TrEMBL record:
Transmembrane annotation, as ranges: none
EC code(s) of this entry: 4.2.1.109
Function: Catalyzes the dehydration of methylthioribulose-1-phosphate (MTRu-1-P) into 2,3-diketo-5-methylthiopentyl-1-phosphate (DK-MTP-1-P).
Keyword Metal-binding in annotation: yes
Name of the gene: mtnB
Pathway it works in: Amino-acid biosynthesis; L-methionine biosynthesis via salvage pathway; L-methionine from S-methyl-5-thio-alpha-D-ribose 1-phosphate: step 2/6
Protein name from the UniProt record: Methylthioribulose-1-phosphate dehydratase
Amino acid sequence: MSADITALDLEEAGAHLAAESARFASFGWMRGTSGNLSVVLSRDPLRLAVTASGHDKGELTPADVVLVDGKGAAVNGGRPSAEAELHARVAALTGAGAVVHVHTVASVAMGRREPGGIVFRDLEMLKGVGQPAHDVEVTLPVIANSQDMTVLGDRLEAARNPRMPAVVVAGHGLYVWGADPRQARHHTEVVEWLLELELSPR
Protein backbone atom coordinates (compact mmCIF):
# COMPACT_ATOMS: atom_id res chain seq x y z
CA MET A 1 0.00 0.00 0.00
CA SER A 2 0.95 3.66 -0.30
CA ALA A 3 1.42 6.55 2.12
CA ASP A 4 1.04 4.25 5.14
CA ILE A 5 -2.37 3.14 3.91
CA THR A 6 -2.95 -0.50 4.84
CA ALA A 7 -5.07 -3.14 3.18
CA LEU A 8 -7.40 -2.86 6.19
CA ASP A 9 -7.74 0.90 5.64
CA LEU A 10 -8.76 0.29 2.03
CA GLU A 11 -11.17 -2.48 3.00
CA GLU A 12 -12.83 -0.27 5.63
CA ALA A 13 -13.15 2.54 3.09
CA GLY A 14 -14.60 0.04 0.62
CA ALA A 15 -17.20 -1.12 3.11
CA HIS A 16 -18.24 2.45 3.80
CA LEU A 17 -18.44 3.38 0.12
CA ALA A 18 -20.39 0.19 -0.62
CA ALA A 19 -22.97 1.15 2.00
CA GLU A 20 -23.22 4.70 0.66
CA SER A 21 -23.54 3.42 -2.91
CA ALA A 22 -26.34 1.05 -1.92
CA ARG A 23 -28.16 3.98 -0.29
CA PHE A 24 -27.92 6.18 -3.38
CA ALA A 25 -28.77 3.28 -5.68
CA SER A 26 -31.92 2.65 -3.66
CA PHE A 27 -33.01 6.20 -4.50
CA GLY A 28 -32.50 5.54 -8.22
CA TRP A 29 -29.57 7.96 -8.35
CA MET A 30 -26.96 5.37 -9.44
CA ARG A 31 -28.78 3.18 -11.94
CA GLY A 32 -26.91 0.29 -13.49
CA THR A 33 -23.20 0.95 -13.15
CA SER A 34 -23.53 4.76 -13.22
CA GLY A 35 -22.07 7.10 -10.63
CA ASN A 36 -19.07 6.83 -8.35
CA LEU A 37 -17.93 7.73 -4.85
CA SER A 38 -14.61 8.44 -3.20
CA VAL A 39 -13.10 9.10 0.19
CA VAL A 40 -9.74 10.67 0.95
CA LEU A 41 -7.38 8.34 2.83
CA SER A 42 -4.25 10.52 2.77
CA ARG A 43 -3.77 14.22 2.13
CA ASP A 44 0.00 14.37 1.59
CA PRO A 45 0.43 12.69 -0.76
CA LEU A 46 -3.19 12.73 -1.87
CA ARG A 47 -4.68 9.26 -1.97
CA LEU A 48 -8.33 8.35 -2.42
CA ALA A 49 -10.38 5.18 -2.35
CA VAL A 50 -12.66 5.32 -5.41
CA THR A 51 -15.39 2.89 -6.41
CA ALA A 52 -14.25 0.49 -9.12
CA SER A 53 -15.45 0.87 -12.70
CA GLY A 54 -18.20 -1.24 -14.22
CA HIS A 55 -19.89 -2.48 -11.06
CA ASP A 56 -23.56 -2.28 -10.12
CA LYS A 57 -23.55 0.41 -7.44
CA GLY A 58 -26.31 -1.32 -5.53
CA GLU A 59 -24.22 -4.47 -5.14
CA LEU A 60 -20.72 -3.27 -4.25
CA THR A 61 -18.57 -5.18 -1.78
CA PRO A 62 -15.70 -3.81 0.35
CA ALA A 63 -13.31 -5.11 -2.32
CA ASP A 64 -14.86 -3.01 -5.09
CA VAL A 65 -12.66 0.04 -4.56
CA VAL A 66 -9.36 1.19 -6.02
CA LEU A 67 -6.66 3.30 -4.38
CA VAL A 68 -5.76 6.25 -6.62
CA ASP A 69 -3.27 9.10 -6.49
CA GLY A 70 -3.75 12.84 -6.93
CA LYS A 71 -4.14 12.36 -10.70
CA GLY A 72 -6.75 9.63 -10.36
CA ALA A 73 -4.36 6.86 -11.42
CA ALA A 74 -4.50 3.48 -9.71
CA VAL A 75 -1.69 3.06 -7.19
CA ASN A 76 -1.76 -0.71 -6.68
CA GLY A 77 -3.69 -2.05 -9.64
CA GLY A 78 -7.39 -2.23 -10.30
CA ARG A 79 -9.59 -0.16 -12.59
CA PRO A 80 -11.04 2.94 -10.93
CA SER A 81 -13.97 4.89 -12.24
CA ALA A 82 -13.20 6.90 -15.35
CA GLU A 83 -13.95 10.02 -13.29
CA ALA A 84 -11.38 9.25 -10.57
CA GLU A 85 -9.19 12.10 -11.81
CA LEU A 86 -12.03 14.56 -11.25
CA HIS A 87 -12.64 13.21 -7.75
CA ALA A 88 -8.98 13.84 -6.94
CA ARG A 89 -9.18 17.32 -8.46
CA VAL A 90 -12.21 18.21 -6.34
CA ALA A 91 -10.56 16.88 -3.19
CA ALA A 92 -7.41 18.92 -3.85
CA LEU A 93 -9.33 22.06 -4.84
CA THR A 94 -11.89 22.13 -2.06
CA GLY A 95 -10.20 20.24 0.77
CA ALA A 96 -13.11 17.79 0.73
CA GLY A 97 -12.74 14.43 2.41
CA ALA A 98 -15.34 12.71 0.23
CA VAL A 99 -16.88 13.21 -3.21
CA VAL A 100 -20.19 11.90 -4.57
CA HIS A 101 -21.15 11.65 -8.24
CA VAL A 102 -24.72 10.63 -9.01
CA HIS A 103 -26.77 10.56 -12.20
CA THR A 104 -30.10 12.03 -11.18
CA VAL A 105 -32.91 13.00 -13.52
CA ALA A 106 -33.39 16.31 -11.71
CA SER A 107 -29.76 17.39 -12.13
CA VAL A 108 -29.73 16.64 -15.86
CA ALA A 109 -33.14 18.23 -16.44
CA MET A 110 -32.30 21.38 -14.48
CA GLY A 111 -28.89 21.62 -16.17
CA ARG A 112 -30.73 21.79 -19.49
CA ARG A 113 -33.28 24.29 -18.19
CA GLU A 114 -30.75 26.60 -16.50
CA PRO A 115 -27.39 26.22 -18.28
CA GLY A 116 -26.08 29.43 -16.73
CA GLY A 117 -26.56 28.16 -13.18
CA ILE A 118 -29.48 27.28 -10.92
CA VAL A 119 -30.47 29.95 -8.40
CA PHE A 120 -32.05 29.09 -5.05
CA ARG A 121 -33.54 31.57 -2.58
CA ASP A 122 -35.81 31.66 0.48
CA LEU A 123 -35.69 27.93 1.16
CA GLU A 124 -35.19 26.43 4.59
CA MET A 125 -33.34 23.50 3.01
CA LEU A 126 -30.43 25.81 2.12
CA LYS A 127 -29.33 25.47 5.74
CA GLY A 128 -28.33 21.92 4.80
CA VAL A 129 -25.46 23.30 2.69
CA GLY A 130 -24.50 25.92 5.28
CA GLN A 131 -26.39 28.88 3.81
CA PRO A 132 -29.05 31.18 5.29
CA ALA A 133 -32.62 30.22 4.55
CA HIS A 134 -33.75 33.72 3.63
CA ASP A 135 -32.68 36.98 2.01
CA VAL A 136 -29.83 35.51 -0.03
CA GLU A 137 -29.45 33.86 -3.42
CA VAL A 138 -27.22 30.83 -3.84
CA THR A 139 -26.26 29.64 -7.31
CA LEU A 140 -25.50 26.02 -8.14
CA PRO A 141 -23.06 26.14 -11.09
CA VAL A 142 -23.72 24.23 -14.30
CA ILE A 143 -20.74 23.31 -16.49
CA ALA A 144 -20.50 21.75 -19.94
CA ASN A 145 -19.59 18.08 -20.04
CA SER A 146 -16.35 16.64 -21.43
CA GLN A 147 -14.85 13.19 -21.68
CA ASP A 148 -11.48 14.75 -20.84
CA MET A 149 -11.30 14.90 -17.04
CA THR A 150 -8.63 17.61 -17.11
CA VAL A 151 -10.89 19.84 -19.20
CA LEU A 152 -13.86 19.04 -16.98
CA GLY A 153 -11.79 19.78 -13.89
CA ASP A 154 -10.74 23.14 -15.32
CA ARG A 155 -14.38 24.00 -15.96
CA LEU A 156 -15.36 22.98 -12.45
CA GLU A 157 -12.56 25.03 -10.92
CA ALA A 158 -13.54 28.10 -12.95
CA ALA A 159 -17.25 27.83 -12.15
CA ARG A 160 -17.11 26.63 -8.55
CA ASN A 161 -19.14 28.59 -6.03
CA PRO A 162 -17.55 28.36 -2.55
CA ARG A 163 -21.02 28.75 -1.04
CA MET A 164 -22.35 25.64 -2.80
CA PRO A 165 -20.54 22.29 -2.33
CA ALA A 166 -21.77 20.94 -5.66
CA VAL A 167 -21.81 21.41 -9.41
CA VAL A 168 -24.07 20.10 -12.17
CA VAL A 169 -22.39 18.66 -15.25
CA ALA A 170 -24.75 19.28 -18.16
CA GLY A 171 -26.22 16.13 -19.65
CA HIS A 172 -24.36 14.04 -17.12
CA GLY A 173 -25.17 14.45 -13.45
CA LEU A 174 -24.23 15.95 -10.12
CA TYR A 175 -20.93 16.21 -8.25
CA VAL A 176 -21.15 16.97 -4.54
CA TRP A 177 -18.54 16.99 -1.77
CA GLY A 178 -18.14 17.30 1.97
CA ALA A 179 -15.65 17.07 4.80
CA ASP A 180 -16.36 13.33 5.17
CA PRO A 181 -18.66 10.74 3.58
CA ARG A 182 -21.52 11.55 5.94
CA GLN A 183 -21.45 15.25 5.14
CA ALA A 184 -21.05 14.53 1.43
CA ARG A 185 -24.14 12.32 1.63
CA HIS A 186 -26.13 15.00 3.42
CA HIS A 187 -25.05 17.64 0.90
CA THR A 188 -26.04 15.34 -1.95
CA GLU A 189 -29.49 14.71 -0.52
CA VAL A 190 -30.06 18.41 0.15
CA VAL A 191 -28.91 19.55 -3.31
CA GLU A 192 -30.99 16.88 -5.00
CA TRP A 193 -34.04 17.97 -2.97
CA LEU A 194 -33.48 21.56 -4.14
CA LEU A 195 -33.19 20.41 -7.75
CA GLU A 196 -36.34 18.30 -7.53
CA LEU A 197 -38.22 21.25 -6.07
CA GLU A 198 -37.11 23.51 -8.94
CA LEU A 199 -38.16 20.85 -11.43
CA SER A 200 -41.61 20.42 -9.91
CA PRO A 201 -44.63 22.24 -11.37
CA ARG A 202 -45.08 25.75 -10.06
